[in-house]
Design goal:
Helices cover about 35% and strands about 5% of the residues. With about 325 residues, it is mostly helical. Among the domains are: about 45-120, Arc Repressor Mutant, subunit A (Orthogonal Bundle); about 205-255 and about 265-275, no CATH class; about 295-325. Strand 1 and strand 2 (about 110-120) form a beta hairpin. The N and C termini lie far apart (about 130 Å).
């Protein structure tokens, strides 16, 4: 009973191996080079404390998709095992925190579609837009002309009285109109200016032209134009449409090959609309137009069947009933 027998064995018997790493537990990154097929996702999204795991996963998945891929609730529900309710709630989370924006826009042909904007860094986008808005406001303030003071009112001329009329007062003759072939200025004194774009003959093209300019922001967020710029550029775009250019051709000419840094989008669009203006379509001769146009539809006076003829009357079958009866496709 006096012999001491401890219950626990000695510590050396367990052979505990200590790891040389200061953090033996937790995650260890195994990074491999991926070429191609990878998406850069910021830690502000993957480590967001207010978003759910499904919302973070959906945001990363949407950012990995190509431009124009469908990301509606039905398509995402077919892709992931979660139901439509959970996916819709996760999309609302992303909208609330600025990672997603769903807007309704009207196309040039009048249809309403849903456009989804995915932001990989909403805070940086908001800061950039605020900086560009401040620069645009500063530029407008700098170029706004100072108000011109009104000219002093000139009193109307007083009719001369009989006593003030003198024989020597001779009315000044009006200058003779200049000859159309006369040149009053030397050739070097008149600089040659580029001709302005032709104004459309009607204002029927102004509404689709204004809609096209307003929708450029969906092609590139940097092409967000003010109301003043849209009104100023609408006649130029209407001139393109007047010359037979389709809205898709105008949009491609304005949005293709944009520079990496775009500070003044309205100036760039003005330059492209002026320099890339297509030539007008050749006018068709009246004879060719008359030959190409088919005869109008007429209603037969005998059988009320529609047929093409320059004047009203009877169709061929009613004019020649014997021939129609012998024909395999005739009545009977």
């Amino acid at each position: 009973m006096a012999e001491e027998k401890p219950n626990a064995p000695a510590r050396a018997q367990y052979e505990i191996r200590r790891s040389p790493s200061p953090h033996p537990s937790g995650v260890h990154q195994v990074t491999e080079f991926q070429d191609p097929g990878y998406t850069i996702v910021g830690n502000h999204l993957t480590q967001h404390r207010s978003l759910s795991g499904l919302a973070i996963g959906l945001a990363a998945y949407i950012q990995s998709l190509p431009e124009g891929a469908p990301v509606d609730i039905r398509t995402l529900a077919k892709r992931f095992p979660e139901g439509r309710g959970r996916i819709a709630a996760s999309l609302r989370e992303l909208e609330a925190h600025g990672y997603l924006e769903r807007v309704r826009r009207r196309t040039d042909d009048g249809r309403m579609v849903t456009l989804t904007l995915s932001y990989n860094n909403p805070a940086a986008t908001r800061a950039r837009r605020a900086r560009e808005s401040a620069e645009e406001a500063k530029r407008r303030t700098a170029v706004t002309p100072a108000p011109v003071a009104p000219a002093p009112a000139v009193p109307p001329p007083v009719a001369p009285t009989r006593a003030s009329r003198t024989p020597t007062s001779v009315p000044t003759p009006a200058p003779a109109p200049a000859s159309p072939h006369a040149r009053t200025d030397p050739p070097h004194a008149r600089p040659e200016l580029p001709p302005p774009p032709p104004e459309p003959r009607t204002r029927a093209q102004h509404t689709p032209a204004a809609a096209l300019l307003a929708n450029l922001r969906y092609e590139d967020p940097r092409l967000l134009l003010s109301v003043r710029d849209v009104h100023r550029l609408t006649p130029a775009v209407a001139g393109w449409l007047e010359r037979g250019a389709s809205p898709e051709a105008v949009r491609n000419a304005l949005t293709t090959g944009l520079p990496a840094t775009l500070r003044h989008p309205a100036a760039l669009l003005t330059h492209r609309l002026t320099e890339l203006l297509p030539p007008p379509l050749p006018a068709a001769s009246p004879a060719a137009t008359a030959r190409a146009r088919p005869a109008p539809l007429q209603t037969c006076d005998g059988c009320e069947r529609a047929f093409r003829a320059p004047t009203p009357g009877r169709c061929r079958d009613c004019r020649h009933p014997a021939v129609a009866s012998r024909s395999p496709t005739g009545p009977g």
